[in-house]
Structures are given as structure tokens and as C-alpha cells.
UniProtKB/TrEMBL annotation:
KW Repressor (keyword) present: no
Documented EC number(s): 6.1.1.2
NCBIfam families: trpS
Listed name of the protein: Tryptophan--tRNA ligase
Source species of the chain: Weissella diestrammenae
Gene (UniProt): trpS
Annotated keywords: Aminoacyl-tRNA synthetase, ATP-binding, Ligase, Nucleotide-binding, Protein biosynthesis
GO molecular function, one term: ATP binding
GO CC annotations, alphabetized: cytosol
Catalysed reactions, semicolon-separated: tRNA(Trp) + L-tryptophan + ATP = L-tryptophyl-tRNA(Trp) + AMP + diphosphate + H(+)
GO biological process: tryptophanyl-tRNA aminoacylation
Similarity section: Belongs to the class-I aminoacyl-tRNA synthetase family.
TM helices/strands, residue ranges: none
EC top class, as a word: ligase
Length: 338
């Protein structure tokens, strides 16, 4: 029997999960979980959330259960996937420290995703050191669980590259093969970085998201406010579809692409109103989100059960982490006592 591949991914508890997570990562995780070909771990990255929310612990605390509910609602099954909480595994911090000695500051400065995020978060000259090094902590997350397959959105490619480098360096320096190089598993082209309502990457932290838990009213209000084509004033005016968020979303979410092509042609020729096309998009999204929303509401009735599920998952994850940590310390020559 071939050994199952370990799948590891996670999300920061900085808010509820959105439709970008759904197509960018969650859908893949559920499919891979159900294939039975993997040993899946999903981590709620609360330690990482502190790197840019240290002064706002309530946000992290409040988001923990929200993220867990989102997981369960989309079909992550705790019987098949170990769902755990990052801060429950102190070994992750230990490995992060060892990794930090194997990477230069110059290398960390080159990470394009971190560069963009530093700009977006407006840190200026006061970039928290913990934030700056978060890709190293992510490398530790993946490496400690020997994750070899990591289903994530496109913004995570630089993190995976960094992880592979650190794993190679660690194994080389300490003459071992204990750590494994991961590969990313990315969604189909165009779905790995879903734009938000304002056109930049949809993010929990940017207030530009459509959440899996949004009510029908919230969903309609967001779709109604979406950016279309400012020159499309009269219904009869020809409209542009490039940069038009309604069509961007239809490309991603409507399974009837022949219909989308027809609507695009009609819009470009003139004669298709913004309200009509937005109503259509609303229906497409609502059809996908309704079952998720309903399952989530039912699960939210018993929050203690969700918290217990996280505790059980974290306990199992820690046992695995401790075994690998002993192997790591042995390789480094610091396992002084049995
Ligand atoms: P934050 O603003 O706190 O960073 P986020 O919305 O970027 O939140 P993360 O928890 O950082 O979400 O990301 C979790 C996973 O979801 C990652 O694999 C990431 O690539 C993926 N992801 C996040 N946003 C999108 C998006 N807009 N499109 C596709 N995938 C996404
Ligand atoms: Mg992010």
C-alpha cells in the first residue's frame, strides 16, 4: 500500500470565510478530503492572525468559531479531516525559531505577497517583526505536519516556494530527510485570486467580501452595489465587460458558460441593463450559497459542540507534531534526553 499524502492548509481567524476562499481553496479541500487519497489537516491560524492583529485579540477570538462553522458548512468533515488550532501546538513556534536561523532578512524582503500586504495594511515604517517573518511560520506549519500537498489560492505561491527552500536547507544542513518538500495545489486559472467588490483581492481584512454566511438581503445589497461600467448609463448603451465585476463573477460562478457568453454579447451590443444582469448574478450566487448558509445556521445552534470538535482535533494534531518534533531535535543533535 502506498503511503497517503498529507494535505495541510489553513485560514487565519480574522473574519468569516468568503466566496474567494470557497473557490480558491475550500472546494478543493472538500474534494480531496472525500477522495480518500489523503490524510488531511486543516489549521485555524490564530497565531498568524496575531501578526497583524496583536492589539485586537477579540477579533481573533470571535472569528475562531466562525471559521470552524464555515468549514463544517461547506462539507469539511472532522471525521475525515483533522481540524486544529495553531496556538494549541507550541511545537510550531519552536520549529519557526529554528527555521528563522536558516533564512536571511534579504530573502524575506523579496516575498511579493508580503510586500503587497505591507502596503495594503499601511504599516509604513512600523512593520511588526512577527508579520514580516510570517512566511517562515507558515513553512513551519507545513513542515511540522510533513504536508506534501497544500491546496491554496495563488497568493500563497511565494509561501510555498519559501517552504520548499527551508525544507531543503534544513535537511541539507542537518543531514536528514525528516522534512518533506510540499507542492501547492492551485484552483483552475482565474479562480486563485478572486477580486473583492472593489476589484482588489477579496480579503477578510479588507471589507470587500461576499461571505458564505451572508443572508439573501446582504448578498443582494452587495451584488447591487457592484462596480460595472461607468459609461453604461442607458440600457441601450453598449457596455464594457472588461473590469466589470459582474461578468468577472459570472465567469467564475456560473456553470452555464454558454449563457454567460450570450449575456456578454448582449451587454456589449447594448440593451441589457445593469439591474437585470445583477439580478441574474444574484440568483447564480444565491443558488450556490443557500445550502451552505442553511447548514451553517443549523450548526451554529450548538457552539459548544464545535468548540469540542476543535479541541479533539487539536489534541490529535499535537500528538503527531510531537513525534515529528522529536525527529527534528534528533536531527539537530539537541534531543539530549529520551
Ligand atoms: P486576511 O485578509 O486576514 O489575510 P484572507 O481573506 O486573505 O484573509 P486567508 O486566511 O489569508 O484569507 O487565506 C486563506 C486561504 O484562502 C489561502 O489559501 C488563500 O490563498 C485563499 N484565499 C484568500 N483570499 C482569496 C481570494 N480572494 N481568492 C482565492 N483564494 C483566496
Ligand atoms: Mg490572506
Amino acid at each position: 500500500m502506498t503511503e497517503r499524502k498529507v494535505l495541510l492548509t489553513g485560514d487565519r481567524p480574522t473574519g468569516k470565510l468568503h466566496i474567494g476562499h470557497y473557490v480558491g481553496s475550500l472546494k478543493n479541500r472538500v474534494a480531496m478530503q472525500n477522495s480518500g487519497e489523503y490524510t488531511p489537516y486543516i489549521m485555524i491560524a490564530d497565531k498568524q492572525a496575531f501578526t497583524d492583529n496583536a492589539r485586537n485579540p477579540e477579533k481573533i477570538q470571535n472569528s475562531l468559531l466562525e471559521v470552524a462553522l464555515d468549514y463544517l458548512a461547506v462539507g469539511i468533515d472532522p471525521k475525515k479531516t483533522t481540524i486544529f488550532v495553531q496556538t494549541a501546538i507550541p511545537e510550531l513556534s519552536e520549529l519557526t525559531e529554528y527555521f528563522l536561523n536558516l533564512v536571511s532578512i534579504a530573502r524575506l524582503q523579496r516575498n511579493p505577497t508580503v510586500k503587497t500586504e505591507i502596503q495594503q495594511k499601511g504599516f509604513g515604517e512600523s512593520i511588526p517583526a512577527g508579520f514580516f517573518i510570517y512566511p517562515v511560520s507558515q513553512a513551519a506549519d507545513i513542515a511540522l505536519f510533513k504536508g506534501t500537498i497544500v491546496p491554496v489560492g495563488d497568493d500563497q505561491e511565494p509561501m510555498l516556494e519559501q517552504t520548499r527552500e527551508l525544507v531543503r536547507t534544513f535537511n541539507h544542513v542537518y543531514h536528514t530527510d525528516v522534512l518533506k518538500e510540499p507542492t501547492g495545489f492551485f484552483p483552475p486559472k482565474g479562480q486563485g485570486r478572486i477580486p473583492g467588490l472593489d476589484g482588489v483581492k477579496m480579503s477578510k481584512s479588507l471589507g470587500n467580501a461576499i461571505y458564505l454566511s451572508d443572508s439573501e438581503d446582504e448578498l443582494w445589497a452587495k451584488v447591487k452595489s457592484m462596480y460595472t461600467d461607468p459609461k453604461h448609463i442607458q440600457v441601450t448603451d453598449p457596455g464594457h465587460i472588461e473590469g466589470n465585476m459582474v461578468f468577472t463573477y459570472l465567469d467564475i460562478f456560473d456553470s452555464n458558460q454558454a449563457q454567460v457568453a450570450e449575456l456578454k454579447a448582449q451587454y456589449q451590443a447594448g440593451g441589457l441593463g445593469d439591474m437585470k444582469i445583477k439580478k441574474y448574478l444574484f440568483e447564480v450566487l444565491n443558488q450556490e450559497l443557500t445550502p451552505i448558509r442553511e447548514r451553517r445556521q443549523a450548526l451554529a445552534e450548538d457552539k459548544p459542540a464545535v468548540l469540542q470538535m476543535l479541541k479533539d482535533g487539536s489534541q490529535r494534531a499535537r500528538e503527531t507534531a510531537q513525534v515529528t518534533m522529536t525527529e527534528i531535535r534528533t536531527a539537530m543533535g539537541i534531543q539530549y534526553w529520551d
